[in-house]
TrEMBL record:
Entry's Gene Ontology BP terms: methylation
Keyword Magnesium attributed: no
InterPro entries for this protein: SAM-dependent_MTases_sf (IPR029063), UbiE/COQ5_MeTrFase (IPR004033), UbiE/COQ5_MeTrFase_CS (IPR023576)
Record organism: Quercus rubra (Northern red oak)
SUPFAM superfamilies cross-referenced by the UniProt entry: S-adenosyl-L-methionine-dependent methyltransferases
Record-given protein name: 2-methoxy-6-polyprenyl-1,4-benzoquinol methylase, mitochondrial
Amino acid sequence: MGLRMVTRKLGSKLLPRFSSTSLLHSHATSFEVHEEEKSRLVGNVFSSVASSYDLMNDIMSVGLHRLWKDRLVSKLNPFPGMKHLDVAGGTGDVAFRILEALNSVKHRATQDVLEDNLHEETQIIVCDINPNMLNVGKKRAMERGLGEDKSLIWVEGDAEDLKFEDNSLDGYTIAFGIRNVTHIEKVLAEAYRVLKRGGRFLCLELNHVEVPVFKELYDYYSFSVIPAVGELVAGDICLADSSCRVSEG
C-alpha cells in the first residue's frame, strides 16, 4: 500500500520511468534472506566484484547494456547547468555518458556565453553505497581524462536516505540498482523528495518475458548461463542475483 501511494505521488510530479532488461537478473537463482541481512550481502557481493563488474556486464549482456544506457541518457536529455544524481552508479557508466552528451561537439558548437557559464555550474553526482564501486568509477574517470572535471562529483550514500536538500535536483537516474535496495518505497520517496518540481526520474531495470517460448529461453539463460558466467568471471555466483529475495522476520 505504501509503495502504491509513493508511486502515485511520483506519477504526478515526474516523467514516466524508463525500463529495460539488464544483465543482472533479479529473479534469477533467487534465494531468501532476512531483511537485515540483505544490505550486508549485497555490499559484500559488490565489494568482491567491483574490479570485474564492467567486464561481467559486457559478457553477460553481449555488450547490450551499453546501448540501454545510451538510450537512458537520451531520454534524460541533459542540459548545461543541470544538477543531476545518478544512484547506484559507482562505476560511472551513466555519469560519463551524461558528460559526453553535454560536451559533444555539436552541442558545444551551438553554445553561447550564457550556456558556457551554465556548463561550469553543471553537477553530475554519482552516488553509491559501496566505496569499492566508487573507487572503480574514479579510476575510470582518471583514465578518461575526467579526473579533474569539477562537474563530476562522487558521493558515498544510501539511496534510502539521501543527504541532499528537498527540491534540489533536476534529474535522478538509477540503472540496474533498484533491485538491490531493501525498501524500494523508501528509494522512491527519497527520489520524490530531492527532485525539483518537474524533475526527471528515470529507472533502467529488468522486465519479465511473457511470450512462452522466449520465456523458456530467457529463464534458461537466467538460471544457468548467468550464474556460471558470474562465478567464472567474478568468482561470485551471488552476483547473478545480488538483490536476493527478502523474507520477513
